Batch of 4 targets.
Target 1
Amino acid sequence: MADPALARAVRRSPSVRWDTVVGALLVVVLLLSFTTVDGFGNALNLSFLIGNTLPIALIALPMTMLVVSGEIDLSVASTAGLSGAVMGALWNQGMTIETIIPVCLLIGVVCGLVNGLLVTRLGLPSLAVTIGTLAAYRGIAQIVLGADAVTDFPARYLDFAAGRIGDTFVPYALLPFLVLLAIAVVALHATPFGRSLFAVGAGEEAARFAGIRVRRQKLILFTLTGLTASLTGVFWALHYASARYDNATGLELSVVAAVLLGGIDFDGGKGTLGGAIAGVFLLGALQNVMSLVNVSAQSQIVVTGVLLVVSVLGPRVARQVSAARRAAPPPVPAAPPPVPEASDPVP
Amino acid sequence: MTHPSDTGPAAPVLALRGVSKSFGAVRALRDVSLDLFPGEVHALAGENGAGKSTLIKTLAGVHRPDAGQVLLDGAPVLFHGPGDARDSGIAVIYQEPTLFPDLSIAENISMGRQPRRALGRIDHKATRAATAALMRRLGVGLDPDRPARGLSIADQQIVEIAKALSFDARVLIMDEPTAALTGSEVARLFGVVRTLREQGAAVLFISHRLEEIFEICGRVTTLRDGARIASEPLDGMTEDDLVRRMVGRDLEELYPKQEVRPGEVALSVRRLTREGVFTDVSFDVRRGEIVGLAGLVGAGRTEVARAVFGIDRRDAGEVEVDGRALTNGAPSTAMAAGLALVPEDRRAQGLVMNMSIERNIGLTGLRTTVRAGLMDRGAERSRSLDWAAKLHVKYARIADTVSTLSGGNQQKVVLAKWLATNPKVLIVDEPTRGIDVGTKAEVHRLLSRLAADGVAVLMISSDLPEILGMADRVLVMHEGRITAEIPRTEATEETVMAAATGRAA
């Protein structure tokens, strides 16, 4: 890839940002794929790429906010599966789809609330809580729908979820997603709410002492995450025209991998939504390309795993490069910060 | 207590000769020389940034000097790391002890080099006996089997000292050991230091509390901007002399208290109780008044402040700001009513260390620097720049993280963050702990001016001269209750300490 160019960029800029690096990588991967991979550039393939990536992208919106605030939700794929299962079961009961979808979304809200209450009221770590509900929600999905696959949803809905605008590469579903993306970007990067999430993630106690209502904000985030996951479950069932209890299994790992790849710090308090979405589509594009050139599914998993490690490593390397660049002429990596006296007194 | 400036035998055990050290463009030490003699307690004084910590780290083998020499028993040595210095008998006791809380005192002291029995099993009996011998040598009665958890910070430091002695340390460097200690704990620590001195150890002592320097030290070396100003006996010097050497000019008064006629009651606390922590606490703070809240660490002062502000829930009682009752456990409503709290622990509670100066100050403006529901970045930036300038925060760029600032400047950012809310009532918890004397005077001047402008100030402090110098009235807490209210005219170290230790009538 364009490593020399990248390295030059790293050298030139004193504070290279990882989200910019990921964005540049995405552009490079797209350009290379357009020119060298047969079948990549046609509109149909691109619409597949986008349509298959949308579920990850959707859940990445609230997941980014959660990780920024120092929490995580691993139950999202199970919530999506449960939502799809309920959709199938109620459809079999003869309910109309217009009634079913709000019910599914409500279930997502409840799933998110349960996670949020366990984390904020009982003070449990979200990693543990949501590993538990990951299993629980999936189990409920299986109880609700059993081994059935429901496929006969109304054509209007199926067409919307799987179709594209004319012969372009734009799936219908991309448009509402872009609206949600815009809302999420503004919410995280331009509102007091978003600003406070960064403070909570970087220093929860100091945020509390600044009057930020930490627990309420986290509860809101978990609830939004549940809602978005259930929306994704509905989209998934319609997009693939199949509601099964095991829909979207393992999706949480792709979401977390993409978000971390996009430069959202696992320790909270750092990152941009733009970086996260670039990470999502970078992962989606790589998977698409690998399928086109007949890389086996197993090898694809290996690549995804390696990317996850790189994503955790990358921002750290970028930061150290920046720090080294900023340090005085002779590179002294371990030198303490120069100006303030290091014996900073108070605990 | 002072003692003769007699420095024992003529040969210094550890010395610096013309040492310089730079970090990039910053010259942290410039041609500094220093002699440490056996049997002396030697003070190292200077403002934050004067080079004290670089000097300590050079002695301890963390930094290697760019020029000049470190002499051990008169012979030049080159330390390749802290391990080298330790093996040469140089030990550093830091402000924050680093013991393993779940291990016993004896296990902490022998960590990594426990005496062994057959088959490599640890010889607990020998470990205990060695520790008991060390404790006897220091003249303290700490039980070797006691776990480190629950020891007071002073006792933890004594354990660190014992650990240093177990390495046959002849030079002890104590970096602000008393910053987190109460009066009686300081006395306990000083007892141990005197014992060490009599046994011929050399002690280099760093403290921002001048009265402690005069109490325990025989000589003082003053640093300013990386250069040595003087090394001299403390006998015959006054605190003013020392301050003048440190700051290089006459310091304006350290406690510039203005007389203000108190106005209406701005903060009213009634029968505030948090079970098992404090009981039935009532007091008022009027506009223009500085009320000192004194007491020993653990008396419940910080806990009262937290409950008043709403960080912790109260079990009973009422809090009113300007006649408005505050909701229980809701800092956001306390802020809206005009209450501000500068907390005790600025690194964890006062600041988000990895965020910029701008954003840290901006945190208290998330409700005000808003236009149409969105952050007004221009307003946020100018608010932060404005307040950073008003408080004379020294920084390179407003977008730098606060962790790059010195302790005193960090504290100014915390103050800026809260003053930017235009509070009616300001609670400050240990506002000058660990900051240098110049910044301290600045903070005092600021508090005094705020009071003159009609702000009601409640000042919690373990620094008794600060309480006596600044407060119009002193409230004293002992074991979770207010035991005395002393007007400025009657407040002395004796009256306050009597109430703080429960000896008052």
Target 2
Amino acid sequence: MSAPLIRTENLVKRYGTVAGNVPPALNGVNLSIYPGEFVAVMGPSGSGKSTFMNILGCLDTPTSGAYYLEERNVAELSDDELAELRNRLIGFVFQGFNLLKRISVADNVALPLLYAGVGKNERRQRALELLEQVGLAAHAGKLPNQLSGGQQQRVAIARALTNRPRLILADEPTGNLDTHTSEEIMGIFTRLNQEQHITVVLVTHEADIARHAKRLVRFRDGDIIHDGEVTV
Amino acid sequence: MMTGAVMGEAWRAMGVNRLRAALAMLGMVIGVAAVVLMLAIGQGTQAIVNDSIASMGSNLFIILSGSTTSGGLRAGMGSAPTLTVGDAQAIGKLPDMKASAPVYPNTAQLGYGPNNWSTPVYGVTPEYLEVRNWSVESGRGLDDSDIRSAARVALLGKTVAVNLFGGEPPLGKSLRIKNSPFTVVGILESKGQSLDGRDQDDTVLVPLTTAQTKLFGNPFPGTVRFIMAQAVSKEAMTEAEEDINQLLRARHRLRSDMENDFSVRNLTATAQAAASSAQALSFMLGAIASISLVVGGIGIMNIMLVSVTERTREIGIRMSIGAKRRDILQQFLLEAVFICTLGGLVGAALGVGGAWAVSTLADMPAVVTGSSILVAFLFAAGTGIFFGWYPARKAAYLRPVEALRHE
């Protein structure tokens, strides 16, 4: 087996200043995820799964322990290098879509290219290409809030794919969507995982959604209580 | 990320909240307009002062004879008959002097046909016009033969020409000075007001010898009331003054324990004082106006801080897709600079318009220079950077996870 894409060693995250006052959000998590995996992360609210995702996405830093992304210790990277990782290696999909409301759908999709230093025409072309892939080419010029929730999430997925990431981190991507749309969205993730071999890590609390994954990790009170087959 | 793209982002962000951007801009507009206008008024004042200095003649000394005392009453400077035409000629020959002109002034009633007019009449030599930096508009100046023959010729100032001759061309006409006929040989160019508000064109020049022998008479032949002398340069003036003092003391045979029976005044020093006070005024106006720029800048900072707070989530999203701190910093900084420079442009236009209005409607001098617009404009952009820096930094150093969580 190849080297893990993601590896955490004894990851601890504490909120608040006085240790021991508040139970830690992550209580020494060890986990490895290999290229091409499709992992569902489940657990009740407050179990630490969102904190874990934020650390995986280099949006937050652990209190102690180490996180290796592509075998590199993230703690040793500069702010700029982290930004670069988020730009090129990772694609985020959020529950609330997190599109910029004031710019067009195409501009939203093209935004990661802007920060990667790609020229205007190429940005435009790539954005249209991606919108085509998620079936929204006709809506390129619209503002995000002119689209339905499912369409917005597809735009967000297109944006996550802009820089051809190796890893997609999706935090409750179907939380705001109806069942039918959720299935559509999960279909896209499955396709990306199978056809483009993109590693997908997906947080959800819905069993129907987790069932699309090949591996299930369950959190409770900051600990992993299950890691293996999808048993829901 | 490329600057062009960042500028696009900043521009778009500004367009989203037009009213707010416009209000923030208003502070800059007023500030820059005030600076441009105040500088224009200051420059105008300076221009007036400089004109009057130039009209007086440059690097000038005026040498007055001392005072007489009669029965315990001292008559004041210029009353003692101690300065002579010979003194004037000797001063003119000093190495750092360009020219020297003895002057014998008096006042006389002039007449032409039914008109009459009272004005100062100066008995002068040909050097006078040179020293005063004065030229003849039509006709000719005085020459040496006029002096030698004590000719009855006169040069008229503009005011005299108008008051005495009305619309008639005065050249070659005969006018009466103290009831004796003089021929008008030249009209002097207009000089306008002097620094103390006197009309310099209200004067008549006649040959020195004519004034002394034929017009006013002179109880002390060969003496003059004062001498105007011009140094070769501004730098030579200190030494020239010293030389004049020594020369005159020697010529007047003053012992070392005796006081000067004359006084030498440096007119340029007075002029320079006026010029520097005008400069101080212009500086002060500019400084006061700059305060409004600073206030405008604080307005920008306020707006930018609100904007950062309001867009915290947007900043988080941008960070999550790869924006570096530098990108965020640039975006917000550029937004502030945009507001400021745009406000600066509008303000500069308003300032120029205001200066025009002031100079035409209020009849006050206002001179807009390219440099004052440039200064105000750069100041505006600088204000944008200075006051935009803190909010932009605040935005750039948000932690991504917290920015994303922000509602």
Target 3
Amino acid sequence: MSVLEKGADTTAGWFDDRLGGAGYIRKSLNKVFPDHWSFMLGEIALYSFIILLLTGTYLSFFYTPSLTEVVYDGSYIPLKGVTMSQAYESTLNISFDVRGGLIMRQIHHWAALLFMAAIVVHLARVFFTGAFRKPRELNWVIGTLLLVMGIVEGFAGYSLPDDLLSGTGARIANGIALSIPVIGSWAAFLVFGGEYPGTAILDRLYALHIFVVPLLILGLITFHMLMVWYQKHTQFAGPGRTEHNVVGSRLFPGYAAKAGGFFFLVFAVLAALGGLAQINPVWLYGPYNPSQVSAGSQPDWYVGFLDGSTRLMPPWEISGFGYTVPLSVLIPTVVLPGVLFTLLGLYPWIEARISKDKGYHNLLDRPRDKPVRTAIGAMTITFYVVLMIAGGNDVIASVFHLSINTMTWVLRIGLFVLPPVVYFLTKRACLSLQRSDQELIHHGIETGTIRRLPNGEFVEETVPLPEVYQVGMTGVEAEPLDAGPETPAPVGPGYEQPQLAQAPDRDGFFSSRRKREKVPVESDAPALEQTGSRKV
Amino acid sequence: MNGQVVNKVSTRGRSRRRSRLSGIAVIMLALVAVGSLYTAVAAPSSAQESEPANQSMKVQEGRDLFLSGCSTCHGLNLAGGAGGPSLIGVGASSVIFQVESGRMPLAAGVQQAPRKDVRYTTEQIDALAAYIDSNGGGPSLPSGSLTDGDLQLGGALFRTNCASCHNFAGSGGALTYGKYAPELEQASARVIYTAMQSGPESMPRYGDNQLTVEEKKAITRYVRYITEAEDVGGAGLGRYGPLTEGLVAWVVGVVALVALTLWIGARA
């Protein structure tokens, strides 16, 4: 034992004598996480959040959340002598006069964009693999809340510089609040402390941005991860993996080294973006002035779908009894996100209700094995992407010399036509992939060797698919391929469905998996026999 | 009148005719003498006096250029015609904006005249401008530098009057039905100034009562300044705002991070 090890041993012993916990730590360090690259996507969001906290703390040293008017006297010449808010002045100072301020601001902003993007990618992974199913519905809800909190946090941060862009965003938020029937005016006055823009909004957003919402996000992340810890991570099917175990690497040292290294990789990508790509050049936007607006004023990407829905919405409104309900604002910015996020949060229950699947699931689905779920996901992504494109229709029209009016109509129609088309195509693609899997399993891997039989017939030789892939594809382990004819199912009450060891694998709405048990290889399926040794 | 005089002379005989001829010769000689004397004596002022002559030569040159390059659409007498508006009274500014930005001569009837390669030299453009200006006048460029205005004032005026179409950084923006406010990086100071003066196509016209000469010069300077200024934060991403930033976040950021996830996920 080296001196270092002895020292560590003594120190650890000292703490253990007073606090205990050696047993717990030993157990924790031995905790097993399943190995799959897609399980690390959520970590990108986590590490982006840590970087947001670090860079945000630095920025808060130099930022002043005040709308008090001052005359700028900093380094950026085109604004020298211009009257502006202290908030904007301090943002300019961070960009031009604080050492390292600009790169911190840029890393902070890029980290925000990637935090949200990583959440969405992670959400897609969880969705398409069915990781949200019982017992993990609550963690899905927490994830949905994190997504919404991220949007709120991002919007608050977007508004802080008090440049022309952020002011325009706050103006729109005010309009959205005003569009709510009955309570709209009160809500807008409550949030903004009076008529827009007022002087209170920036202090409020600052408090939300640096304290309330980050704390909520931190709390939700803690719950999110504690639940992963407690419920254990899901895993894909494979040899030795069941619904009741976890196969992977131990937390220490394997997983800890990976995760620690991954943090620095995420930091590297964000630092590279922050150093090489300019983001939100506030000095070009100029100070906020309610009478000004720039062409191409867009929200950051994660709010873009709401901008798009507003742009696609026809100018409808209802008037009566001296009041007007502006449907053109209310529906795309209040009703639509409300419905979307509610459906998202409730999805585990919706699917369980429709598929009548109330079982525990620790093994993940491959997306192709749940064609309907995968198609719903692809359809939703299509809907979302159409809205996002619509949110940038002016810049796209300007850059590619398109007619913005034509584009709006194409996207309006696309919003309702494309998702069903994508749904259909995705479902068919999933079923085709299932078939190709079945063929691989039953037909085997082509060797490229052609054998000529004595009767002159040519046949192609194949080798069976290695078991590790078979198990991964089917979730069924150690079942010999040539199981022979199925034993007749017992008849009587309770025996309608063949009871499998795995999750219910019936032909429901969500799972159209072709049961390989029902497709015996050689006995009574001439079509498959043909593929077993395919004629050339 | 002259015919009657000649008739009278012819009736009065040869001697009178001779004396009349000699009289013309004397007058001619006197004129030549006076003319030579004038040229000799008044030499210092000749430069000033030649300006109208130069101007008329410029107008003449402009007219020639107009007849060969523009009259098919704008008509032989500037009154407009097949596809082209009348140019009487549009002023020199319109000519400078349209020709110096390459929009004129127009290649085809399109929604909005696009920028093209410039077909004329600056001298030729000035000649064309002089010719158009000589027919009905109109706004023309002020004297002095166009880019010595107040930079900060220019910024404020730009954000109020220009950014709503041309975007905060002059990167351009979309208008209705395929029309657009062009990006301003390619626009020279003369083009920027004359655009404000002449209000081409969808753009409003800013006469000297809306924006004074000094204010227009300030805007011109600001536009040149920001379009020439380098992006201090790294790659400018076209200065289109959050749209390209979001695109980079996904196409560069997410792709890089997912690739790294695959890489680190593959190390067991």
Target 4
Amino acid sequence: MVTIKGLYKKFGKQQVLSGLDLSISEGGIFAILGPNGSGKTTLIKSVLGMVIPDKGEISVLGKNIKKNSEYRHKIDYLPQIANFPSNLKVKELIKMIKDLRKPTHEDERLIELFKLTPFLDKKLGTLSGGTKQKVNLVLTFMFDSPIVILDEPTSGLDPISMLRLKDLIQAEKEKGKTILITSHIMSFVEEVSDEIVFILEGKIYFKGTISELKTKTDQPDFEHAIASILTENHA
Amino acid sequence: MLKILKYSFYDLMRSRWSYVYFAFYLLLGIVLLFLNNDLSKAVITLMNVIIILVPLIGTIFGVMYYYNNKEFTELLLAQPLKRSSIFLGQYLGVAISLSMSLILGLGLPFVFYGLFESSAIWDFSLLLITGTFLTLIFTALAFNIALSNENKIKGFGYAILLWLFLGVIYDGIFLMVLIGFEDYPLDKVSLIGTMLNPIDLSRTLILLKLDISALLGYTGAIFKQFFGTNYGLIVSFIALSLWVILPVLRMTITSKKKDF
């Protein structure tokens, strides 16, 4: 699905990715974890073509993504910070994104799921952070693409919406999609993900299931396993 | 690109600032016409306002729009769209909505005043054309500045400096050069110097069209010889077009290389 070979990226003097190799197979939920500044978002943005790598090769669905924008038809992306033009209404934004990508009716179901109907005629500038995130989720999931990338999907969500999101992610997985998630909430990651990709200093430190991680670090639970990686490497 | 253009245009058409800008020109047009009662004088006063204000608004609006829409632009970048069409669309959206405010705001009072029967229609059209050019130029420059500066404050600072430089400082330097080298023939130098600054170029174009070049003295005569002819007019418009095309080109190239 997604293959990355020898990816390097430097921002100014800071080497963010240093020779990262990763291959993600089809189907399943992959959590990308790592300490702050480890290059999670840079990795995701490189796959999306928003960050242009200094060196290395990325291919999505077997095609090199360099100088190509068509492959993004196959990717749904949820950005970390959702900030929309404040003069647009929710309804209009959804219509606009559909107009830019392709027609779909999936949005009605998602609006229903996240109880957004009363907000459809409100301007985006007046919405609360959590509601904006819900709109963001609708925009992401309505296209039914084979690859879904979620950058901090839980931020600002209330507990009920969080539950709905988990169900939604599971349902998408059932359809055979490949889902990449970054999150700081370990319990969320533990609950939803099939595999963990742990990034440290711009390289993949670990890739495997949670139980493999627990055996490797010799820790009884997931949170401690992650903590032990961090203390070992940053002590 | 047209879809992006359409949406940023709609977005701006709904913003309060477009109306403030429109209302300002409307008011200015009405006040000048109905208090002045002289169309040519009104055009000259308008020129003085437009030459300074249009670049300022273009730069500020361009920079502001870019920074305000940054996160949304990132969302667009993740869609199957080309980078160049995203940025060109946004740029044209801003530039066209600003030009519309200018053309409608000034045009309406003039039409009601009876512009079509007046001989000043060409002067007035030239005023609106140069105003539109200045909007296109300075919005493009603003987008360039914003694209090259992550830091908002820095971006705004450079934008204001650019406006100040081309609007005021450039003239000062130009004048000092002319005085310093007054013993030499300066007609070519002053012609080129005028061409290199879009604000000066617009001002000279309008002044000469208004037939008050006598005010400009000897240089005025040379200018009249050059700009007054069709050849000069064409060269001037080519220069103005270059001022639009080059920044737009740089904008598309920078946007392709940039990390978001």
